[in-house]
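Task card 7
Instruction: Convert sequence to structure tokens.
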Amino acid sequence: MTDSSAPDSSSEVALGLDTFGDISNGQGGRPKHPAQVLRDVVEQAALADRLGVDAITLGEHHRDDFALSSPEVVLGAIAGRTERILLGTGVTVLSSDDPVRVYERFATLDGVSGGRAEVILGRGSFTESFGLFGYDLADHESLFNEKLELFARLRAEGPVTWSGRHRSPLVEQEVHPKTERPDGVRAWVGVGGSPHSVLRSVQSGIPMMLAIIGGEPRRFQPFANLYRQTQEDLGREPMPLGVHSPGHVAETDREARDQLWEHFAANRNRIGAERGWPKATRFEFESEASEGALHVGSPETVAQKIAHTMRTLGAQRFDLKYANGTMPHEQLMSSIELYATEVIPRVRRLLAE
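Output:
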């Protein structure tokens, strides 16, 4: 099956945005109600669509610091406010979901949006969904392997006979509704950077979306090389490669870094306290902004860094995670506008040179 989740040549690139619906600060620096954050996400996506951004992806989380536990519902609301932007998740936690229901939801979204749905399937970086939905975290790996195999089979949209350990078998059963696409629902496999995950993406026939959230993109070249070499070894047609990284755009480098720092630190320190990480330092932040995964700065700086990342890895898709911790909605909207009107045109010119 040939996938068309993204342009398949280096001359055609897609540039998108990503958010987890982080609980942002409102008036007086107080956290907004999650319901308002969800409405803000719809407004952010509508702005991105009006300004020509290629894709918006919403991450699934089940925590009080993020509002998006049901991203497909929010994507349905966004579909009614937009015309051209791709509508996806980044990621759908397939390990603790049912692949049949996931497929049905995205086939439905694809229908109501006029063929604009896509799903990034992942294991997720948090574990709350396992206990919430009755799964054993010890089965983390086997759950994802099995469910990804079934989802890949469903994309043919014909009768499926399948059996596994974690759910009941299917015998010549079909899933409805069907999409209007010959390849079924657009899909990616979210990969955090392990060779096994790279191989799993290629074996499933679903393109890889590589999450680079720390370190210089060059560190991930071996995974990009393995991805392409495995496709060649298995005789598969070339599949696009996507990259996801955090960042923020403002008028100047200093303004962008100063705006992001306190929200980056608050987010990192909360998660770090749960995982035993040391507190974030400004030195670490500045290093990530200068040499690492943070694509933060003026439009020129961010464009240069995105182009460098895409060239280094040979990627055809880049999604900027523009929401970072408690950053206010107004700053997020400004970042989206600069990304759409100044960063994206610069990236396209740089990659065409």
